[in-house]
Design a protein that fits this description.
- The protein is an alpha/beta fold.
- The chain has a domain at 187-301: Rossmann fold, CATH 3.40.50.
- Helix content is 48%, strand content 12%.
- It contains eleven helices and eight strands.
- The strands form three sheets. Strands 2-1-3-4 form a four-stranded parallel beta sheet, with helices on both faces. It has a two-stranded parallel sheet with strand order 5-6.
- Helix 8 packs across helix 9.
- The longest helix is centred in the middle third of the chain and has 27 residues, at 160-186.
- The radius of gyration is 22 Å and the shape is globular.
- The N and C termini lie far apart (79 Å).
- 37% of the residues are buried.
């Protein structure tokens, strides 16, 4: 009887150890959170540092955030100038933190490429800065998902097949939407977009060979347009005879509405996907859904 009881205790203890073990992944922003969540499923806990509805460019890590990074099994972040604090953390801590940077997975584009297409003078200094908004490209997202799956599989090889399947299933959605974007743009009347806002879409326009004009660069800190910029945007909309001006999510739309009013056009939202609202977070809105909304906006803007 004692032997049976001991066996029972052993089995219960073993089962508890197996089921209670759970990887912890910390992500810096919504796109990283979305990719990680889709790949790991129920095999890991995924935390996002950037609170829903807040501006990614103004994020400052709290002591609690720093502690979570030091204790996690994998920290997944964008990389680049806005994440310089991460490099300082990694260099100062004695912990051996597993990390994966999005910018290390793709060939980055120089932010300076967008300057000739923006009307407002760039208001802070960048020498060799790269555009950090890599997830706005569906082709990049495919690479990011695959690379994340490889990284987490190396950390947790027991569940590698599970991660690989999840990644494959999610990648297929991006491949399908990429094909739709390609066909849409190929058959559209226009090949140029006007953004009365920041422009964090350099990777997107590169994918499909689109031309564009914008008020500000993607990482511009000050988005109060000068009269000269407003006039330039109005002139460009009239010149191109485009029926829409675009702005990104969480924008005040003040500039876009001013330009639209002066040119008798309409305002469309184009998702940069830095972050989502509290309601979207509660509804578990996926990155692919937001990019699908961009497809619908683009269909109007180019036709």
């Amino acid at each position: 009887m004692k032997a049976i009881f001991k066996l029972f205790i052993f089995v219960v203890a073993f089962f508890y150890a197996e089921t209670s073990f759970c990887l912890t992944i910390v992500t810096s922003n919504y796109p990283a959170f979305d990719i990680a969540s889709h790949v790991v499923g129920d095999k890991a806990k995924v935390k996002v540092l950037l609170k829903p509805g807040t501006d990614a460019h103004r994020y400052e890590p709290s002591p609690k955030d720093l502690g979570a990074i030091e204790e996690c099994d994998l920290f997944y972040y964008t990389g680049g100038e806005n994440d310089e604090w991460i490099e300082r953390l990694l260099n100062s801590t004695s912990k051996n933190i597993n990390t994966l940077s999005m910018l290390d997975s793709i060939t980055p584009l120089s932010e300076s490429e967008a300057f000739s297409h923006t009307f407002e003078a760039h208001n802070h200094h960048h020498d060799e800065a790269f555009d950090e908004h890599v997830w706005t490209s569906l082709k990049n997202d495919i690479v990011l998902i695959d690379d994340f799956a490889k990284k987490i599989s190396a950390i947790d090889p027991k569940n590698a097949d599970f991660y690989k399947k999840n990644a494959h299933d999610y990648v297929n959605k991006f491949v399908a939407l990429d094909i739709e974007f390609t066909a849409l743009i190929k058959n559209s009347k226009r090949q140029v977009l006007v953004f009365a806002d920041r422009f964090p879409f350099l990777y997107f326009v590169h994918d499909y060979g689109l031309d564009y004009y914008a008020a500000f660069s993607g990482c511009a800190e000050d988005t109060e347009a000068s009269p000269k910029t407003v006039a330039s945007l109005i002139k460009k909309v009239i010149e191109l005879k485009t029926p829409y001006v675009l702005c990104q999510e969480f924008s005040t739309e003040k500039l876009a509405k001013t330009v639209a009013l002066e040119t008798n056009t309409e305002v469309l939202t184009f998702n940069a996907c830095h972050n989502i609202s509290k309601k979207q977070y509660q509804d578990k809105v996926e990155l692919i859904e937001l990019l699908r909304q961009n497809f619908e906006s683009l269909k109007k803007a180019l036709n």
